[in-house]
Design goal:
The protein is mainly β. It has no helices and 15 strands. The two termini are 27 Å apart.
């Protein structure tokens, strides 16, 4: 599978929302914080070997993590650096997800490969499987004993105790999907598309989208 297309929009923003504020991460390592979230540092002055392609934040806002396409990881605030995925994953990194307690994280490659670091478990991957479309996001289960992966064509793959609430493969001709966010109670998940669309799966509620917002840049994820 050609992963070049995955990297074509890495200069777009990576958005993570936590409580009364949110974080914007950029491909050059710059981080902007808004609302009540404190800026805890970034890697905009670092000599990056590849662009930043994934970001995740602690639920309490006390730390965040940035991941490069080649698997290099940068942690800030109260997050401990628990390892990089350089040389571990065969495909470019497209997602990173923190455990609820912030004591571990998963790093996901475009081929569905998974790296588990710290006090989190490995529950399987899609590495070696011929996928119809590359993976674009990862979301952990509430119990931290599982996770789900979403592909660009809307396919959903669950591992461990993560629950399946349907996919959007039948909508893939209309949009390319860019991210996934699991509900805090495990009752479903939201999937975002590159045009700013949001799709509520399971018992989650649709709260709006940015389809008609008029932004020129493509939406790259949901958090």
């Amino acid at each position: 599978m050609d992963y070049q297309l995955i990297m074509s929009n890495i200069d777009n923003r990576l958005l993570k929302f936590r409580g009364r504020g949110y974080i914007l991460g950029f491909a050059d390592g710059k981080v902007f914080t808004f609302g009540e979230l404190e800026h805890l540092g970034d890697c905009s002055k670092a000599d990056l070997s590849s662009p930043i392609t994934a970001v995740a934040a602690r639920a309490d806002g006390r730390g965040y993590i940035l991941a490069c396409a080649d698997g290099k990881v940068f942690t800030f605030g109260e997050l401990e650096h628990l390892g990089d995925a350089q040389g571990v994953l065969e495909a470019p990194v497209v997602g990173v997800s923190l455990s609820p307690e912030g004591d571990g994280y998963w790093i996901c490659g475009a081929d569905g490969g998974i790296g588990a670091y710290g006090e989190v478990g490995f529950f399987g991957s899609l590495s070696g499987i011929n996928l119809a479309a590359p993976i674009i996001g990862i979301s952990p289960s509430v119990s931290r004993h599982g996770y789900l992966l979403v592909a660009r064509d809307g396919g959903v793959f669950t591992f461990g105790d993560a629950r399946f609430f349907g996919s959007l493969v039948h909508r893939s001709k209309c949009s390319s999907f860019t991210g996934v966010l699991g509900a805090k109670d495990g009752s479903g998940y939201w999937i975002s598309s590159d045009d700013g669309g949001v799709y509520a799966m399971g018992n989650t509620c649709f709260l709006g989208s940015a389809v008609r917002a008029g932004y020129r840049a493509k939406c790259i994820g949901i958090a």
